[in-house]
Design brief:
The structure holds three protein chains of three kinds. Helices cover 40% and strands 24% of the residues of chain A. Chain A contains four helices and ten strands, in the order αααββββββββββα. The chains are: A alpha+beta, B mainly alpha, C mainly alpha. The complex binds heme-A (HEA) (2 copies), dinuclear copper ion (CUA) and copper (II) ion.
């Protein structure tokens, strides 16, 4: 090494190395502490409706096994690195070429595990993938770069035209009742996403996708366009307020004035 | 080849000539090119919102004839290869030229067809049919044109004595390409012209 | 069709004789421009890829600066969009793929005991066409008013979803440069794919059966097959986009009845195999490094090879996992959900077999090994978050969020890039004769590992807190500030590690320790050659008698089953004798340098420029391509002497 003209030696680094991981863990801890107390209006871990709830469950089914496997692999690597590090530069270990039984085991075991989480996953796909129920409250969502418009066919004016709302912070839906969003795009692809109520569904020109959600309790929910749609994609946000049916009716009546 | 270059193994690990293997791989890959264009055509079949529609334009007898011409060119290609394998350079030349002429006829037929359709109001941007039809068949036509170009180059080289019996592989490779382009046309012709929903 | 013998006085080859002679002089710049030597082409690929890595990395740093704080004004939205588009496109197509190609080129012929690839000039053509496409794509920056912050680059995201990519929504020429540049890149990749398949199938040394090939060669083979079947699909999609943009066709025009999802299906039908095109070469590199530094053969060779092949096949059946949220219905989502989670099985086999390789070994902590082990760990994290994506209902929440950004940087950076860095540390001595500096290598590794985790781990959290990707800014009441700041800090740590790498690279080039032919006591054939290997690689083509042929010349088992060194083992080919005037050395005829591939390649950007600006250029470009191809076919592959 000296010939390279650097003053760094492996010894220096080795000393550094022992406390780098410690620093790293400390940093992570700091991350969690400071991250936890902030307000998080689009937090997917904080579901406020049936759909988001079930989706979070599915996430946990895969997250916990993933954490276990991660621990096994990373921990395993750590153990191996410590235990089998070179001690004698002359030593050549036995040349093991494999072990068919073992290899079959770690082929089959993950497959079984995956099917075990995959089958309930399919059940949830069908559960959430059903069409909206008969008495769902219909909202037609019209996406246009870079705004949302909500139309309420349940509330019409004298000419039979549905109530239409453009104010992105002033959308309203009923709480405790299923809402069926009919998604229309007039230009490019957008994606309709209210994280605390449920996952997203794309809004595609020439095609009407239908998403149903339900807010368990009244409240205001933050949402955002989740498919890149051009210049101000980031600003295509919305606030949706869920309120009891009577309040909603009153609000609509007022809006129709 | 004047010299056996270091990379020009006479013997390959599989026993298949490098260039032949290359050609097979190219054709396999080309299948996906055509496959993707054909898939787009089929996906959009019957979805055009305005006319003209295929049934307004297709002249099946005419296209059948030009398909037949292309089919015949495969036969003459086989004859060209057989000739050079027997060492008959003169016959090879004749058959190569015939193949090229038949190919040109096919392309000419396509040009005629395109202009006809254009007159009747079908352009690339008229509707989905125009888009998918012109691009798919045009892509095939481009293949035939390249084939004709290769055949003509070989014809010229052979006039200067550049293709002998030992070079029959070159003719074989050109033949592989040519037959492939023919087969693709049969598929396209069947799917687009013959099977109409 | 190159075997047409040409009369000696062909005017074309006569005119080029002089230029070719200039290229024969192996120190002149022309010898690089006209080179058909796989090692030089590999080096060219490698250098280009590293340059573009810096370009793409600087783009990423700009993105991170903008996102460091909420409501920032460092970049305007337009510049931000163009930068992330170019960042993604650059990293995927101009960095990871060419860097993998660099290793294919450098290693495959040496590993299978060949003197070059099957088609050396086609190989040069691949490189130049790739470079033409890469430069063309980046030239788009200058079509705007760059000095006033108006970048002309494409801004539709690296997957360029229609209809956003159509002229109506993406005016200007950025998108044209994108689609035509990628088209050139596709041609280059296809040519490379064909070449390596033929090389691997046909050019193996006697005794080098398929199941004696190093795993890296196997992964190259699988990758090349993926390339020749996946590239046509994206090429057709790009053709369709080209027709829509330039000639008013209707492929993606919803008003004419076109279906915007057609683009997505085609892009991801290509795109998912593509991500394995990006990772399989890295898997191959890991499978070479880990055995060498644990002094054991790869654990379960057959399983590792077959799982690689299985991944290749399965990668064709999972593309809809990028489209779960497009509303394709429960049946499609269920089927593709199950196929996607199952792809974890063959990948897991590899991870466990690598652990099995290390287990019981005598592990030497050299820089290549550090990178390799780091890769296994980081890739596993990325793969596991991939599995959480594949669980359809939870992906409805994750899709298009920073959680996805975290996933793919773990597999792309933590998987592909880190492994490729390991590969550079591992094979650097082979091609320079110098060892890279070890302490700097370790520093590079630790900085990179820490910086990487600091950058991308927080993205899991910001993503699950609902932060969408591709937003040029965000509001400070969303709770994302802290995580984004971390990511930005981490990104600069990565940049520091890259600077350490560059310093190490140039330092070692100039003043590195002599490595000798086999510095790592390795197992594969390339280490039996002098470093750097002579132009013709093998003076005598070796006859291979086992998977561990070279290793077995160095070690054997004694009566008790212990592994002992063979006395005077490790027969290494002697250095080239100097004073031998025969340039080709030992009368081995290597293919002559040629300008033809370059000439043909230059035609492509001219055609593309013509399509965008002035049709008059199109025939000019085509003429160049034709001249190049014609000259190529006509000139003899080896100069007669
Ligand atoms: C190198 C590239 C690479 C690789 C290897 C992978 C590997 C995988 N990817 Fe990833 N992916 C990308 C690159 C890659 N991906 C990119 C670039 C995107 C985003 C594109 C964009 O939108 O811009 C993406 C997006 C993406 C999505 C879409 C997300 C969305 O947009 O909504 C999904 C969904 O299923 C997914 C899944 C997977 C899976 C299941 C794997 C699997 O192959 C992973 C398998 C590996 C492991 C699981 C770890 C090791 C295994 C074990 C230790 C065994 C035991 C494990 C279990 C039993 C679980 N990926
Ligand atoms: C292999 C692929 C790869 C790699 C290596 C990287 C590397 C990095 N990526 Fe990226 N990334 C993608 C592939 C990749 N990325 C893709 C496909 C997308 C999606 C794009 C899209 O949505 O369309 C994406 C998107 C993406 C985003 C999301 C943008 C958005 O959605 O709004 C972000 C944000 O932080 C990001 C950050 C980074 C960072 C900080 C790095 C860092 O690791 C970079 C590290 C490198 C450097 C920092 C260079 C250092 C060198 C120097 C500084 C040298 C100095 C100069 C001289 C000496 C001359 N990437
Ligand atoms: Cu609308 Cu993004
Ligand atoms: Cu994928």
């Amino acid at each position: 090494m000296r010939r390279n003209g650097t003053t760094l030696t492996l010894g220096h680094l080795r000393r550094l190395r022992t406390f780098i991981p410690a620093l790293f863990l400390l940093g992570l801890l700091a991350l969690f502490l400071s991250g936890c107390d902030t307000d998080t209006p689009q937090n997917t871990f904080d579901p406020k409706g049936e759909v988001a709830d079930k989706q979070a469950d599915v996430f946990y089914w895969s997250m916990w096994p993933a954490i276990v496997i991660m621990t096994i692999v990373l921990g395993g690597l750590l153990v191996i690195m410590l235990r089998f590090r070179e001690r004698d530069p002359e030593h050549v270990p036995p040349q093991v070429h494999g072990n068919t039984r073992l290899e079959l085991a770690w082929t089959i075991a993950p497959a079984i595990l995956l099917l075990a989480i995959g089958i309930p996953m399919v059940a949830t796909i069908y559960d959430l993938g059903r069409p909206p129920s008969e008495d769902a409250f219909r909202v037609d969502v019209i996406a246009q770069r870079f705004t949302w418009e909500f139309q309420y066919p349940e509330y019409t004016d004298e000419d039979g035209k549905p109530l239409s709302v453009f104010d992105q912070s002033g959308f309203h839906i009923p709480a405790g009742r299923e809402v069926a969003f009919y998604l229309h795009s007039v230009d490019v692809i957008h994606s309709f996403w209210l994280p605390k109520l449920g996952g997203k569904l794309d809004v595609i020109p020439g095609r009407t996708n239908v998403l149903w959600l339900r807010a368990d309790e009244p409240g205001t929910f933050s949402g955002q366009c989740a498919e890149f749609c051009g210049l101000f994609h980031a600003d295509m946000t919305m606030k949706v307020t869920a309120q009891p049916q009577e309040e909603l009716d009153a609000w609509a009546a007022e809006m129709l004035q | 080849m004047a010299h056996a270059a270091a990379t020009d193994h006479l013997e390959t690990s599989t026993g298949i000539d490098n260039k032949k293997l290359l050609m097979w791989l190219f054709l396999a890959s080309d299948c996906l090119f055509f496959g993707a264009f054909i898939a787009a055509y089929l996906l959009y079949r019957g979805r055009s919102v305005v006319g003209p529609y295929p049934e307004d334009l297709f002249d099946i007898p005419f296209t059948s004839v030009s398909a037949f011409v292309l089919l015949m060119s495969s036969v003459t290609m086989v004859l060209a290869l057989a000739a050079i394998q027997r060492g008959n350079v003169r016959n090879m030349r004749i058959w190569l030229l015939t193949t090229a002429v038949l190919g040109t006829l096919f392309v000419a037929g396509q040009v005629y067809e395109f202009t006809e359709f254009h007159h009747e109001g079908l352009s690339l941007s008229t509707n989905l049919f125009g888009t998918t039809f012109y691009v798919l068949t045009g892509f095939h036509g481009a293949h035939v044109t390249v084939g004709v170009f290769i055949l003509m180059s070989m014809f010229i080289v052979s006039m200067r004595g550049g293709i002998q019996q030992k070079d029959s592989l070159t003719v074989e490779l050109a033949g592989l390409y040519w037959h492939f382009v023919d087969i693709v046309w049969i598929v396209i012709f069947t799917l687009i012209y013959l099977i109409q929903p | 069709m190159a075997s047409i013998a040409v009369p000696k006085r062909s005017p074309l080859s006569e005119a080029l004789k002089g230029a070719r002679r200039a290229a024969e002089n192996s120190s002149s710049i022309w010898s690089w421009i006209a080179t058909v030597d796989h090692k030089r082409i590999g080096i060219l690929y490698g250098i280009s890829a590293v340059v573009f890595f810096i370009v793409g990395g600087v783009e990423a740093l700009l993105l991170r600066l903008q996102l460091a704080q909420p409501d920032a004004n460092f970049l305007d939205p337009d510049a931000y969009n163009r930068l992330f588009t170019m960042h993604g496109t650059t990293m995927v197509f101009l960095v990871v793929m060419p860097l993998s190609s660099a290793f294919f080129n450098l290693m495959v012929p040496l590993m299978i005991g060949a003197r070059d690839v099957a088609f050396p000039r086609l190989n040069a053509f691949s490189y130049w066409t790739f470079l033409a496409g890469a430069i063309f794509l980046n030239a788009s920056f200058f079509t705007g008013d760059i000095l006033n912050g108006d970048l002309g680059a494409p801004g539709g995201g690296w997957f360029g979803y229609a209809p956003l990519s159509l002229r109506e929504f993406a005016p200007g020429h950025g998108m044209d440069f994108w689609m035509l540049g990628l088209q050139m890149f596709g041609i280059a990749s296809l040519a490379g794919g064909f070449n390596f398949i033929v090389t691997i199938l046909n050019m193996r040394a006697p005794g080098m059966t398929l199941f004696r090939m190093p795993v890296f060669v196997w992964m190259t083979l699988v990758t090349s097959f993926l390339i020749i079947f996946a590239m046509p699909v994206i090429a057709v999609a790009l053709f369709e986009l080209t027709f829509d943009r330039l000639f008013d066709a209707n492929y993606f025009n919803a008003e004419a009845g076109g279906n915007p999802l057609l683009w997505q299906h085609m892009f991801w039908l290509f795109g998912h195999p593509e991500v394995y095109i990006l990772i399989l070469p890295a898997f191959g590199i890991l499978s070479e490094i880990l055995p060498t530094f644990s002094r054991k053969p790869l654990f379960g060779y057959a399983f590792v090879v077959f799982s690689g092949v299985a991944i290749g096949f399965m990668s064709w059946g999972v593309w809809v996992h990028h489209m779960y949220t497009t509303g394709l219905g429960t049946v499609a989502n269920s089927a593709f959900g199950i196929s996607t989670i199952l792809i974890a099985v063959p990948t897991g086999v590899k991870v466990f077999n690598w652990m099995g390789t290390l287990w019981g070994g005598s592990i030497r902590f050299r820089a290549p090994l550090m990178f390799a082990v780091g890769t296994v760990a980081m890739f596993t994290i990325g793969g596991l978050s991939g599995v959480t994506h594949s669980m359809v209902p939870s992906d409805y929440q994750q899709n298009s969020s920073y959680y996805v950004v975290a996933h793919f940087h773990y597999v792309l950076f933590g998987g592909a890039i880190m492994a490729l860095f390991g590969g550079i540390y591992y094979w650097f001595p082979k091609f320079t004769g110098k060892l890279m500096n070890e302490p700097l290598g370790h520093l590079n590794f630790w900085l990179m590992l820490i910086g990487f985790n600091l950058t991308f781990f927080p993205m899991h959290i910001s993503g699950l807190l609902g932060m969408p990707r591709r937003v040029y800014t965000y509001n400070s009441d969303m709770g994302w500030d802290f995580w984004n700041l971390m990511s930005t800090v981490g990104a600069f740590l990565i940049a520091l590690s890259v600077l350490v790498f560059l310093y190490n690279f140039f330092l070692s080039l100039r003043r590195g320790k002599e490595s000798g032919p086999d510095p790592w006591d390795a197992r594969t054939l390339e280490w039996s050659l002098p470093s750097p290997p002579p132009e013709y690689n093998f003076k005598e083509i070796p006859t291979v008698d086992s998977r561990d042929h070279f290793w077995n010349t160095k070690y054997r088992e004694d009566e008790t089953g212990r592994v002992v060194p063979v006395l005077a083992g490790g027969v290494v080919e002697p250095e080239e004798e100097h004073g031998d005037d025969d340039e080709h050395g030992h009368g081995i005829h290597m293919p002559s340098p040629s300008y033809m591939p370059l000439i043909a390649s230059i035609g492509f950007p001219i055609v593309a420029t013509g399509l965008i600006y002035d049709y008059a250029l199109v025939p000019v470009g085509f003429a160049l391509i034709l001249i190049g191809l014609f000259g190529w076919v006509m000139e003899p592959a080896t100069e007669e002497d």
